[in-house]
User: Which sequence fits this backbone?
């Protein structure tokens, strides 16, 4: 199984757009939200692509990706057994989208 990692300005923008679209739900349920420096839930609607880009931590995400790849290889047999429970012989690939921002979960 191949693991495909994505970390990009586009994915960060999409996460923040989704966060903005669900702001009422997020506030009602007191979810914690990670936002770019200098941005709050009250100012999220005015965030620019440049503000998001200025706060990207590519080296941190590269390190995180390496750690996730390591953990996936360590637990590959468990992952295969889990997938087999759903009557799937195997998955060709799994997409993993890394983001700094949005609702933690």
Assistant:
């Amino acid at each position: 199984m191949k693991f495909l990692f994505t970390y990009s300005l586009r994915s960060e923008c999409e996460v923040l757009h989704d966060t903005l679209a669900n702001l009422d739900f997020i506030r009602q349920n007191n979810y914690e939200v990670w936002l770019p420096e200098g941005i709050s839930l009250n100012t999220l609607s005015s965030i620019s692509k440049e503000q998001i880009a200025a706060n990207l931590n590519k080296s941190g995400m590269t390190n995180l990706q390496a750690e996730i790849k390591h953990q996936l290889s360590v637990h590959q047999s468990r992952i295969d057994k889990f997938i087999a429970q759903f009557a799937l012989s195997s998955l060709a690939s799994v997409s993993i989208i890394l983001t700094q921002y949005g609702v933690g979960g």
About this structure: The beta strands are 2-6, 33-34, 93-97, 102-103. The chain has a mean pLDDT of 89. The longest helix spans residues 58-74.
